[in-house]
């Protein structure tokens, strides 16, 4: 058996790299597709989780970042910049550090999870907290990339989407064909765009016999695509998708319409409930934003919108360890016991 080589080496002929391109990789991708027992039971379907938190920096962003940093290095860039709700900055910092490049990140002040901030810091990024939201950060990042010698690695950079489409390839390669339905959280809308591109490419050359319907879910307080207009002051506990004016808005609508899919919203309460269910019953610890896909599936099933017997894949986009506050919040403090088996047994309810 050989080691997984990373998404560029594994799918080289489907990605915009040349034969001599020197690849910057952490061997991202090749993530588990985990059968979801409880979700399957609740929906009457065969549900799988694409666990993207298993990527090297703990989110799906690594798939796009290996492409973006590989390309930036090939073009001789000395520095890269991104706006981020946290995961893009963690990924950019890691890959840029590996490539010997300076990485600048712009994050919304006070609104990124501590784990992600820690990653950007330890990987050596230069961080600015912007007095504004993600959308303001992206405007600023674009302005800087236009005027100064720094390469933009947000998903408005088309090679990011190219790298991220490999997740759809992996799903088809593992299942033997495309699923009936693919469910994703939606923030800046790059990922739903990327999956749809991947599924379309595979179907076009006969690597799959069909394309799934694409369902995307935004957080209710940050649901511009559902509302049909930008949200000025987006709110949600799922900080990763706290975005009011997604850059890939039109592509997301195209994925929805061309696939016969939907983009809907889930409340923070529904997100947290799915987050707890995933951790406690499926054994998969994700960050809150990632649970939006599962929350959306469960909400849809309750509304009678999920026909039984389908094969469904939910992408869970980021690792729960990035934002553990929500795991601890509201949970009882573990009690303290002496080194005494009888007391411990009593406290555990075993005695
Ligand atoms: N889930 C997680 C964990 C994310 O970090 C993001 C986006 C999304 C879902 C939404 O994906 O933007 O492609 O629709 N995070 C970006 C960031 C915005 O800066 O890390 P999308």
TrEMBL record:
GO molecular function ontology, one term from the record: threonine synthase activity
Protein known as: Threonine synthase
Alphabetized UniProt keyword annotations: Amino-acid biosynthesis, Lyase, Pyridoxal phosphate, Threonine biosynthesis
Tryptophan synthase beta chain-like PALP domain location: 24-318
Pathway it works in: Amino-acid biosynthesis; L-threonine biosynthesis; L-threonine from L-aspartate: step 5/5
Catalytically driven reaction(s): O-phospho-L-homoserine + H2O = L-threonine + phosphate
Enzyme Commission (EC) number: 4.2.3.1
Cofactor: pyridoxal 5'-phosphate
NCBIfam families in the cross-refs: thrC
Classification via Gene3D superfamilies: 3.40.50.1100
Main EC class the enzyme belongs to: lyase
Lineage of source species: Bacteria, Bacillati, Actinomycetota, Actinomycetes, Kitasatosporales
Family: Belongs to the threonine synthase family.
Keyword Transcription set for record: no
Described function: Catalyzes the gamma-elimination of phosphate from L-phosphohomoserine and the beta-addition of water to produce L-threonine.
Superkingdom of the organism of origin: Bacteria
Pfam families: PALP
Naturally occurring in which organism (per UniProt): Streptomyces zingiberis
């Amino acid at each position: 058996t050989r080691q997984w080589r990373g998404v560029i080496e594994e799918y080289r002929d489907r990605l915009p790299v040349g034969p001599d391109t020197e690849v910057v990789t952490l061997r991202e991708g090749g993530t588990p597709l985990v059968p979801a027992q409880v979700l399957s039971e609740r929906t009457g379907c065969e549900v799988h989780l694409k666990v993207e938190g298993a990527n090297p920096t703990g989110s799906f962003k690594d798939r796009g970042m290996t492409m973006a940093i590989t390309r930036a290095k090939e073009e001789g860039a000395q520095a890269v910049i991104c706006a981020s709700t946290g995961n893009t900055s963690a990924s950019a910092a890691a890959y840029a550090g590996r490539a010997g490049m300076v990485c600048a990140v712009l994050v919304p002040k006070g609104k990124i999870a501590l784990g992600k901030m820690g990653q950007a810091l330890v990987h050596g990024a230069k961080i600015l907290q912007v007095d504004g939201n993600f959308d303001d950060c992206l405007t600023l990042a674009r302005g800087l990339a236009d005027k100064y010698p720094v390469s933009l690695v947000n998903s408005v950079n088309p090679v990011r989407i190219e790298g991220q489409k490999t997740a759809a390839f992996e799903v088809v390669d593992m299942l033997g064909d495309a699923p009936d339905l693919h469910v994703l959280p939606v923030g800046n809308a790059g990922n739903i765009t990327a999956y749809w591109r991947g599924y379309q490419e595979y179907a076009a050359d006969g690597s799959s016999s069909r394309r799934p319907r694409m369902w995307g879910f935004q957080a209710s307080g940050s649901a511009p695509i559902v509302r049909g207009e930008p949200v000025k002051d987006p709110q949600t506990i799922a900080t990763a998708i706290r975005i009011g004016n997604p850059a890939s808005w039109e592509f997301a609508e195209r994925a929805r319409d061309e696939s016969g899919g939907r983009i809907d919203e889930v409340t923070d309460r529904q997100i947290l409930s799915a987050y707890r269910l995933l951790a406690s019953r499926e054994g998969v610890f994700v960050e809150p934003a990632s649970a939006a896909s599962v929350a959306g599936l469960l909400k849809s099933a309750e509304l009678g919108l999920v026909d039984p017997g389908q094969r469904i894949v939910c992408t869970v986009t980021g690792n729960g360890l990035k934002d553990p506050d929500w795991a601890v919040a509201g949970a009882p403090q573990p009690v303290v016991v002496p080194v005494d088996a009888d007391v411990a047994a009593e406290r555990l309810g075993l005695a």
